[in-house]
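Data availability (excerpt). The following record was deposited with the supplementary files.
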Amino acid sequence: MRVERQPRARVKLSPRTVTPITAGCQKGHKIKGMSPDAWLKSVLEYGCDLMVAAVEGVRAAEPQALEGQSRGSVLMRSARTSLAPCATAVSLGLLTAYWVSRRKSVPNALAFGVAGAVIGFAGGMAWSTRRVTKGIARGALKNINATRDAHWLAQHPVDYA
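Predicted structure:
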């Protein structure tokens, strides 16, 4: 049984059917009287302000997130606790190489074992440092949101008169 496809309808493009790039903007939010270079400069400055705010937030939140411990001791402790997931992932990688491969080659098994080790160690480190990461990310987001609010107020001044 053969099914024939219907030809697609041709769409005629006119200025009314083609939407400009600024179509997603709300009315009144178009950039008026600003050259593309000035617009790009303002966007890059805003991005740099956000980046600086994030870095300052990380630096401010790090001592509280580390709870008085040094970075090295936190990382060493989490590396030691990551050895168990790493060993589990290595054994799973070796078993996968044994089951998947038709040729039971040593390089193939080593590749799967190393991939498992990397994945297991990275997962263990991420899991064991989640509280520190959460505190640092919270500090960065707090500063980023303050910078975003200041930028919005500069763009939309409030007149209480």
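Summary of structural features: Residues 151 and 157 are 10 Å apart (CA to CA).
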